[in-house]
Amino acid sequence: MRILVVNVNTTESMTEAIGRQAAAVASPGTEIVPLTPLFGADSVEGNYESYLAAIAVMETVRNYPEPFDAVIQAGYGEHGREGLQEILDVPVVDITEAAASTAQFLGHKYSVVTTLDRAVPLIEDRLKLAGLDARCASVRASGMSVLGLEEDPDAAVNAIVAEAAIAVAQDKAEVICLGCGGMAGLTERVIERTGVPVVDGVAAAVTIAESLVRMGLTTSKIRTYAPPRPKTFKNWPLSSVPVLAGQA
Amino acid sequence: MRILVVNVNTTESMTEAIGRQAAAVASPGTEIVPLTPLFGADSVEGNYESYLAAIAVMETVRNYPEPFDAVIQAGYGEHGREGLQEILDVPVVDITEAAASTAQFLGHKYSVVTTLDRAVPLIEDRLKLAGLDARCASVRASGMSVLGLEEDPDAAVNAIVAEAAIAVAQDKAEVICLGCGGMAGLTERVIERTGVPVVDGVAAAVTIAESLVRMGLTTSKIRTYAPPRPKTFKNWPLSSVPVLAGQA
Amino acid sequence: MRILVVNVNTTESMTEAIGRQAAAVASPGTEIVPLTPLFGADSVEGNYESYLAAIAVMETVRNYPEPFDAVIQAGYGEHGREGLQEILDVPVVDITEAAASTAQFLGHKYSVVTTLDRAVPLIEDRLKLAGLDARCASVRASGMSVLGLEEDPDAAVNAIVAEAAIAVAQDKAEVICLGCGGMAGLTERVIERTGVPVVDGVAAAVTIAESLVRMGLTTSKIRTYAPPRPKTFKNWPLSSVPVLAGQA
Amino acid sequence: MRILVVNVNTTESMTEAIGRQAAAVASPGTEIVPLTPLFGADSVEGNYESYLAAIAVMETVRNYPEPFDAVIQAGYGEHGREGLQEILDVPVVDITEAAASTAQFLGHKYSVVTTLDRAVPLIEDRLKLAGLDARCASVRASGMSVLGLEEDPDAAVNAIVAEAAIAVAQDKAEVICLGCGGMAGLTERVIERTGVPVVDGVAAAVTIAESLVRMGLTTSKIRTYAPPRPKTFKNWPLSSVPVLAGQA
Amino acid sequence: MRILVVNVNTTESMTEAIGRQAAAVASPGTEIVPLTPLFGADSVEGNYESYLAAIAVMETVRNYPEPFDAVIQAGYGEHGREGLQEILDVPVVDITEAAASTAQFLGHKYSVVTTLDRAVPLIEDRLKLAGLDARCASVRASGMSVLGLEEDPDAAVNAIVAEAAIAVAQDKAEVICLGCGGMAGLTERVIERTGVPVVDGVAAAVTIAESLVRMGLTTSKIRTYAPPRPKTFKNWPLSSVPVLAGQA
Amino acid sequence: MRILVVNVNTTESMTEAIGRQAAAVASPGTEIVPLTPLFGADSVEGNYESYLAAIAVMETVRNYPEPFDAVIQAGYGEHGREGLQEILDVPVVDITEAAASTAQFLGHKYSVVTTLDRAVPLIEDRLKLAGLDARCASVRASGMSVLGLEEDPDAAVNAIVAEAAIAVAQDKAEVICLGCGGMAGLTERVIERTGVPVVDGVAAAVTIAESLVRMGLTTSKIRTYAPPRPKTFKNWPLSSVPVLAGQA
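The joint structure predicted for all components is written out below.
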């Protein structure tokens, strides 16, 4: 089975890191294909970049030339998952929801520790729409920027551990979700230092995508995620634009 | 004061209809500027087109060459409002929220009557995120497509009235919101035939935008809608792409 | 258009202050008529006085001899709005709801800063009934009494700013609502010192009332706010009582 | 122990009926004192009359010349209970809340069957504020007016039974609350014909009031229901008005 | 009337204490029968022991040889009440729900102070299922174990008072529920020291059980709590096992 | 890896059916061990049997003599999962939660179709506690008893399909969960006839359990599911009782 794991930002090194994390948990027969969006910001840290990433991820997946069995959107609290579900017949798994769903099997309440404070409301909104907020004790910001996570993993671990500790002690979280695709790889060190289960969204999403494929389940096409109706588009898709078409 | 009223689809005749509706309720000193997105679908009826519209509306507003005092996103249940709030310093009003906020001053419960059934979950999700769902009795689909509204207004009125009547009788709605930018102009006829107040989102949004400007209020920049952080973009913005840049 | 702005307490100087605040934001063609209740407490700071104010406001409006286009109930978290909606054909706007509705267009979460701690549950209850609680980060008390606001505006500003700062930093509010009709006039100074948008309920209510009138919208009469059924009253209305009738 | 059971409307025959119902369930040592408000409507069927009743009930209880141990407000879905809790040191029990609290011990979900459709939103609002709505399957209107209940008890029973049957079959209610003080006395006949437990709010309130007194519990005075602060009143209380003072 | 008050743990001295507390509030004609489960843990402080207690309480009540009018399950936040309601025709009252229902008549918000931190989520879950969580300000742990309460009542009072004070000051609770059957008897001393009403679940349950019996009300048998269907059991009931049968 | 899949009732043929369904989806290296409880009812259709099953499942797992990596509780809407999480170090997955969690990745809303009407409230309660109710459109009863499912699979399919069709058309479900462990094996036929994805809880639970093990995740032991504290038990465990001990 082939699973596309799509980064939401255009920093190749993060795509690679996400790909490694995905591959580490994938089953023997699973091929992980990490993809970087055709356009967009080097890091996604707000609604503007996130909306841009939403459409970039969709175009990138549309332009992927080989067949695939599932798609993972590897951005925490980002827009776009519903669009992917519409345009694809294969299962789509968002890492925000994958992490929360998994955390709920491990403890009474879970918290998310993410990057910047401004990402918190986006994650809260995604969890609310996904119906996964009732057992969310808190979403906390470590204060690290997305790119800062890569530049200084030690500082990242320290900042994340500090917030995780508050989430456990004050908010009564029993599980921690690492709230950023870029945190892939930090899981083990965080577990070591907090003593509670730590869920990495990328790993969780891979297992869920594999499971859906194995069970022969995919997105319901009966209502919300029915295929887009035929439309006349103006100046779209980007593949008709020379500069971008050449990148595909 | 100048208010940009941005259509979410690329059908010029709908932009004009929305503009007329906005102008009809605007105060004497207000200039309404109707805008059609630079790219996207001729009608928005699902998440894919809606996400595309989100970014198209943002780019279109960014490319508008004159100063303006407020922006109205004239699409019902569409994505993107949070992005506009980030990139702009002036107030942003979404017609879905404008209609619901206004309806809540008029009755105990309100219902939304929209176009196709597939639009219902999108509107429900927008209302939930906006915290305007507690008094929403129902979101009902008239079965008319967005373009069908323009092609056959009589059939549209009939279909909308039929659902509005059920919303009032069964769901206990006391106010009806017309759930589509393209329904602008049908308000009076629907009021005539249902006997309950009918809120048009475009009109409601114009009065709210004017009010915010008059009170000197605009989007809080302290957290969720802080300006985007400086980023390096790949293949973006579209204005750097010759084909689209020529259209602007 | 003529808008009655009804104070909930019987302190004339507060009526005047509220009237000035309303007039400052009103459109050129709008006449603001500030009214003091015919009976009741000099300040409303609890359920007993609030229920009394509810009926006093209704009687006062009923006794107003000229036609009018809308009514604003200028008390924060007070009882009575539903009764006014029943007995009147024109729009009724409560400042608690006007402020919250307006705040929701400006930020992800808002907080209310009010007078005494005992007013907090009343405001929370009003927001819950109005379906405007989902995005309310907190209702905080400044500890100032209603009359204290008038006696010592500098202390009031200081106390309000202190709580607003906590609301922003701890409760993650992005907008502050001034939770007392008597705070009318303090808005600008609070904005200056907090850096987040500050909504004055009286101003917000005036713009909403004007907007509803302009759109030709008024309270739905189909169910909850249908006109009172014909009744036989004992010892009522007060206008039949000489002492009060003479005051009208 | 002496319990005041205060009717919300001024129809003496209903006060008597309520008093009989209360006395039927009262313990041997309990004296039930039925009271009719000093002023107000002959029947309460909307917010206007309900707000008037709120203040009338408070004045009536204040004017009661003997000591008492608890007060029951015998109106379904009416305003005012919070005010009584403020001005009194003894327990206050509202029949709407008494019935719902009791029903929750008897089945998974309960429904309320009330009089007119316009009373439904008032009852829903009271239950929501009381935190007793989560297990409320529905509030249904029998279509009988308050006075109609007294004029034609057989028709009342039929209408109530019809709605109760729908509540059980469709809304999955397992218990029925009789949603009107005026329904006191119909309980047994409704039980006979529906087969599910039927709770009369007056009876439930009497047992709860007695229980609170027996346990030495009364309203917390620490915050929401602290005694009213000293105020200067204009044209109030009514006892200073000759016409009403003579009635007391 | 005879009311069985069933301890959830097998410590006889706690059964006696609970019985005394129940008897102290019972009406003259009420016989309180305290029962200790036939099997199970000496103290219940977690899900494992609680599930065991659930079935032990049911078996113990089934084996009680005399007729009875109501059953009280005297464990705070424990499993099993729904099962008792199924197998019995008489009313069943859980002390967790009895305390919360009673507290809601006394203040705007209530808090529960219980034993160990690990009991908190169990109590929160019970309140959520009972629909009694909306007005629960907090559930707080005193850190005392169940048996510790008995061994050192003074330390227990101190620990409970400390948490109650935080609940009142920070969580805005206006009423305190003593969240453990083993706290029976501490009520008065806690009231003395906190100044807010303190509800003991055992006392509250006795008055509610008596009230239901007096009103002729019992569990609805129409759906959720219909009698168990006829089943073939393997190795059950325990009364067929010699060792236990000998104990009954 | 070895996964125990524990039936909640004592009907061996159902254990076998559940085991086959689990094995069908299990990964190559996974050994599925189906277990029948040591005691309890032949079918679980209510709270009494469910509570008994809760403790029976725990004892059965405790008595299993070999090491294992995860446990699946294969009963829909049953009690006991929290207890298993306490007494075990390996992941515990309940099929009710597994199905709902999986369904949420496939559509905007899901419905559960279960056996008897009396099971509906139990399932609703489990989903509420699990925080998986927000996107549950409905829980519907097919009217088939648990054993009836096995006796007449064709009638079962028909009854389930009929309710699923209503769930899709009226309740707007986009995914169906088969709400009974005994429905294992009917999945494919139901998918064929409804056109929407159908989730079997047993299959979903197996993939989730495998995923948790693969990621090295297990129940958080920090609070709610900490190991039981040391206790003195009376007449327990059953393994000390000769009759039952002989069965183990």
